[in-house]
Design brief:
The chain has about 375 residues and is an alpha+beta fold. It is built from twelve helices and eight strands. A hairpin with a 6-residue loop joins strand 1 and strand 2.
């Protein structure tokens, strides 16, 4: 199980580790490689601009587009982003992301993220430019990776029972030294690789999880409005957000889905709010606001399967603890690359020698030089 699960997934796990490394620092890389218009620096406590003025700025700058989402930038509180497409039915993955000053409502820019190095790395990492089939395929590779890790723990115990922990037999042949490196790297990283591997598998199911939520919870929240047409002249988005915040005073808005977008109905603003603690800031709660009357029609906690997805994302990318945690994640990622490369070497070496790696695991002296 350990051998074949590892062999099948190793190349793809190497791809994910290599592409995942720059993604850990994607914000810092984008800041160095790509210039963007800065929002005006204001004193703490400065009132934020009216959201209707924000939307008007985007309409003037990008007149041939339709807004899908209004997003508060998690990393820059001075910026609000608006995701816009050619029509409300367009795939949001193809949208432009307009940036607006959160305090002056001045339009900043709409950079083309698809040409960025980090975007290419992200697409390779998430779906290999193959959409949902690519995601599900990488999810299957992730399952094999988890099997390889668990079976590796079982293999490790008998193979090291006669050796002190962390042994590196530098006087032995190269294959034995690589086996020692592989065993040590594998057992040291077992918890981290399981966490990152399992959360990675969960993330590959994101599209399916969202679809199920739409047919399950969102459909239940909007069933009495399903026959309504798309709202032609929606009410104030500023007032809709105020209504949502009043209903959930201990939460902050994360993003707003416009009527007709994938996260809302044809007749509602869906205001998604998050908590203030490190944990609850990753969890979302939707509040549906009637886009014609501005009245709150429903608000409920996300189901467990969506919460699991939301919590898996920061665990996978290590972006919840600032730069120190990013550095730790990068170091662990590099060690995982070493683990995968040494495993691949041991398998290739086995094919070139009459002595199997399995014998080396059971009896390392089997790989010692024999008298000619």
């Amino acid at each position: 199980m350990h051998k074949w699960s590892s062999i099948i997934c190793t190349v793809f796990m190497l791809l994910l580790c290599v592409t995942g490394l720059p993604l850990i620092f994607h914000e810092e890389i984008d800041e160095v490689l790509h210039a963007q218009v800065k929002a005006e620096q204001v004193a703490p406590g400065t009132p934020r601009a009216d959201l209707d003025k924000v939307m008007e700025a985007v309409r003037v700058a990008l007149p041939e587009t339709v807004p899908h989402f209004l997003i508060w930038d998690r990393d820059d509180p001075n910026v609000v982003m608006v995701s816009v497409g050619k029509s409300i039915t367009d795939n949001p993955a193809n949208n432009k992301l307009a940036r607006v000053d959160a305090h002056t409502a001045a339009y900043l820019d709409a950079p083309d993220f698809t040409k960025r190095f980090t975007y290419i790395m992200l697409k390779l990492h998430t779906d290999m430019f193959a959409g949902l089939p690519g995601k599900l395929f990488l999810g299957f590779m992730g399952i094999l990776f988890c099997i390889a890790i668990i079976s590796g723990i079982v293999v490790y115990a008998p193979s090291m029972r006669k050796l002190p922990f962390g042994t590196y037999r530098r006087e032995r042949r190269r294959v034995v030294r690589w086996l020692d490196v592989h065993n040590l790297a594998g057992i040291l990283l077992v918890m981290w690789t399981l966490v990152v591997g399992f959360t990675g598998v969960i993330n590959t199911w994101a599209d399916l999880v969202i679809k199920y939520w739409q047919f399950d919870q969102l459909a239940a929240m909007t069933v009495q409005y399903k026959d309504r047409p798309l709202v032609a002249n929606p009410a104030s988005i500023e007032e809709a957000v105020k209504v949502a915040r009043k209903a959930e005073p201990d939460m902050k808005p994360a993003f707003v889905a416009f009527p007709g977008s994938i996260f809302s109905s044809k007749s509602h603003y869906a205001v998604f709010l998050h908590g203030n603690t490190p944990l609850t800031s990753r969890l979302l709660k939707p509040a549906l606001i009637d886009a014609e009357t501005g009245v709150l029609t429903d608000s409920r906690e996300m189901p467990w399967y969506v919460s699991t997805l939301l919590l898996s994302q920061p665990l996978h990318f290590g972006d919840y603890g600032g730069m120190p945690l990013k550095i730790i994640w990068a170091i662990l990622d590099i060690i995982t690359i070493v683990l995968l490369v040494t495993g691949l070497y041991l398998w290739l070496r086995r094919r070139k020698t009459s002595v199997s790696v399995e014998r080396a695991v059971a009896n390392p002296s089997a790989l010692e030089p024999q008298a000619s």
